Amino acid sequence: MESDKLGKEPMGRLIFRMTLPTVTAQLVNLLYNIVDRIFIGHMPLVGDTALTGVGVVHPIIVIISAFSAFFGNGGAPLAAIALGKGDRERAEKILGNCVTMLTVLSFLLPTLVFIFMKPLLYAIGASEATFGFATDYLSIYLLGTISVLLTMGLAPFIVAQGRSRLVMIATVASAAANIVLDWIFVSVLSWGVRGAAIATVASQTISAVWFLLFLCRKADSIVLKPTNLRLNTRILGSIAALGVSPFVMSSTESLIGFVMNRGLQSYG
User: Fold this and answer.
1) What Å distances lie between residue 66 and 123, 149, 244, CA to CA?
2) Which of 134, 187, 208, 224 is most enclosed, with most CB atoms within 10 A?
3) Residue 64, helix vs strand vs coil
């Protein structure tokens, strides 16, 4: 099994083999926002205003994504430690608890944002000109939150099993799908920012389904089982202890976005 190599290969070779696909996946993942903005910015007549509206939404997207770091980067190291000890049952319970929490948050967070969307967008820098574009993009993106959180939250569990190359392939395939769908929905069908949001959600769904199917295979080190989806407060406490740091680092990026948007609205 790939996970066996984590305890047997020379350290230098192992670091390179694990790091290169992971870094590549992170770099490719940046293409989502870049590609969306390229197509939106080239929309006839309203491209600059629409691009500004999507930019206003970005800090909200970042803070939602930060919750995937909380459970993905908090749970995956614990699962890896459990695997190293030969405790596969605990590793699978950690995975199950993280999947449950990511699923719950994928419904809770969009609900809260939908309720307070208008005052929230104006508070972080939207204007009368950009509000419509911001809501068009954000509304559709929120409907696909479950795909975004599962994609980003489950990837570390797959890397923990020594399958970083699979994460890279899934991310590249998803990014390629996003480029094609952006071209179809924005340039060909003229769906505007809604088309860009649909393309992003659809491409993220590809990765989410891919990761879920992989984790449900019985032949792998950590298997997602329905019996392990029940929440365990002790396990959640351990996850929180590790996950709070990557969550804070990710969420502070969102805070910077809030401040910059407000400053640009007032002085820019």
Assistant:
1) 20, 9, 10
2) 134
3) helix
Residue 67 and residue 89: Cα distance in Å, rounded? 25
The predicted-structure confidence for 165-198, as pLDDT tens digits, reads as follows 888 888 888 888 999 999 999 989 999 999 999 9
Q: How many residues belong to the chain?
A: 268
Q: How far, in Å, CA of 68 to CA of 250, rounded?
A: 10
User: What was the pLDDT predicted at 263?
Assistant: 80
The token pair that represents 194 in the structure block: 């809604």
Amino acid at 80: A
Contacts of 92 (CB under 8 A, 6+ apart): 222, 223, 224, 225, 228
The answer to whether 247 and 67 are in contact (CB under 8 A) is yes
The model's pLDDT over 134-144, given as tens digits with 9 standing for 90+, comes to: 999 999 999 99
Biggest CA pair distance of the chain: 60
Instruction: List C-alpha distances in Å: 258 to 58, 76, 104, 262.
Output: 9, 30, 25, 6
